[in-house]
Amino acid sequence: MPPAHIALAALVAAVWGVNFVVIEIGLDHFPPLLFSALRFLAAALPAVFFVGRPKVAWKWIVGVGLVLGVAKFGLLFTGMDQGAPAGLSSLILQVQAVFTALFAFVALGERPGRVRALGMAVALAGIGVAAVDEGMSGPLLGFLLCIAAAACWGVSNVMTRKASPPDALNFMVWVSLVPILPLLGLSLLTEGVDRDMAALRSLDWTGAGVVVYVAWITTIFGFGAWGFLMRHHPASSVAPFSLLVPVFGMSSAALFLDESISPLRWCAAALLVGGVALTSLSGGRKAGDVAAVESREAVTGART
Question: CA 226 to CA 10: how far, in whole Å?
């Protein structure tokens, strides 16, 4: 990769990592489910009028929209609202690679090789260490909700693999249309009309800015740039940059939110990043499918 493309890949990882800090700030302005709905509304409109018609069947757009948009992001935003730290959340979500491999084995019959199985075990050990750390120092509910979000992400990755969208940005923009009304409905039922209206009435430049960041910068720019890199370079060259996401997430949370990083959390980070690297970047038994699988996982597995 030329230096300019390396810099672009690192920039995308930084954008996705800092996104967790922006989400934390946004949760001070909006209830979590309303915030998630606004994210998808801003990501879908007006972009949906410029990306062209959907290039996969509607069943995949609706399915991924519900699992990724409603379940994964609803759980993530709620987990962070319940106290899961931004830096830890950026780290925990990377276990989606393990869930993806497990669900792919169950649904697609893709048997992991020994190296990938080792990576899954190492990553799960990192989750265990993080759970111990969070159990001693923070709210366990938020941590568990982030784990559930990672599991939903794994399901959506397998669905995306089945859909095989030829244009990841087109796919994600159309997917972003699906969660808007379900999330708004859930927000009205669980967070209340009064709370939602109060948040919208008190909307300021900071609140608007975080919605723009999580929708346009994270999704539109992030996916556009990542898709450009994936079209010009092998997946094995681009995918490793996604491992920088929790590095940027934890460091930016420490810098901007004063989140402390305990020795146990550093240990969990090392295990998780190492395990995810082995899980994501090693081949399974179907060697002929590795390049295509890695390409799709690199696009779907790095998004925050």
Answer: 10
pLDDT at 303: 54
pTM for this entry = 0.85
How distant is the alpha carbon of residue 21 from its chain centre? 13
241 and 301 Cβ atoms separated by less than 8 Å:
no
Cβ atoms of 242 and 15 closer than 8 Å: no
Q: How far apart are alpha carbons 213 and 175 in whole angstroms?
A: 18
What is the rounded distance in angstroms from the CA atom of residue 219 to the CA atom of residue 285?
Answer: 32
What mean pLDDT value characterizes the chain? 85
**Closest C-alpha to 150, from 220, 88, 222:** 88
99 to 44, 176, 241, 303: CA distances (angstroms): 27, 22, 20, 15
On whether the CB atoms of residues 165 and 56 are closer than 8 A, the answer is yes
Answer yes or no: is pLDDT of 32 > 70: yes
pLDDT single digits (tens) 229-272: 877 877 667 767 777 888 888 889 989 999 887 788 788 888 88
Coil, strand or helix: which one is 202? Answer: coil
3-class SS at 157? Answer: helix
Rg (alpha carbons) of the chain, rounded to whole number: 18
- Which is nearest to 167 in space by CA: 117, 263, 231, 214? 231
Instruction: Report pLDDT digits (tens) over 54-100.
Output: 999 999 999 999 999 999 999 999 999 999 999 889 888 888 878 88
Answer whether 218's CB lies under 8 Å from 75's CB. no
